[in-house]
Amino acid sequence: MLMDYKDRKYKRSKNYADSFKHAYTGIKTAVIEERNLRFHFCAAVVVIGLGFFYSITRTEWLVLVLCIFAVLVAEMTNTAIERAVDVATERFMEEAKKAKDIAAGSVLLVSTCAVVVGLIIFIPHILHFS
Q1: How many domains does the chain have?
Q2: Residues forming the annotated binding site?
């Protein structure tokens, strides 16, 4: 079933300012409503603090920033998929569950990668500092 534009709360953005406004609203909504995203933001703040504390190199910063944003994007994509599946299905469907589980699995994979990268970057700094 296709949704007519009149059924949508928002129509297509007419200009870039509206597009950015909708994107900002999406980020704000996700941060307010999604516990896991707030956890990832807090973890990012801790990692950034450690980066400043240990004076990591420019290359290490680039890798950390990419990992941080990859995790946040994966979490927001997971949230979008979960919400879309919830709207599309009113009853339990095995395929809907699989879609949600796969999306959650992608967050787990990228988060695990980010932790490994963080350990590779910070363990030498921690050992040198002690």
Answers
A1: 1
A2: 34, 75, 82, 100-101
Looking at the domain assignment, is residue 48 inside a domain? yes
In a domain, 86, yes or no: yes
**Is 9 among the domain residues?**
no
Q: What is the pLDDT tens value at each position of the chain, 130 positions in all?
A: 455 555 566 567 788 999 999 999 999 999 999 999 999 999 999 999 999 999 999 999 999 999 999 999 999 999 999 999 999 998 999 999 999 999 999 999 999 999 999 999 999 999 998 7
Tell me whether residue 24 is in a domain: yes
Neighbours of 8 (CB within 10 A): 9
Of 75, 90, 94, 95, catalytic: 75
Please report, in range form, the residues annotated as the binding site for ATP: 34, 82, 100-101
Q: Is 40 exposed, middle or buried (0-12, 13-18, 19+ CB in 10 A)?
A: buried
Active site residue 75: yes
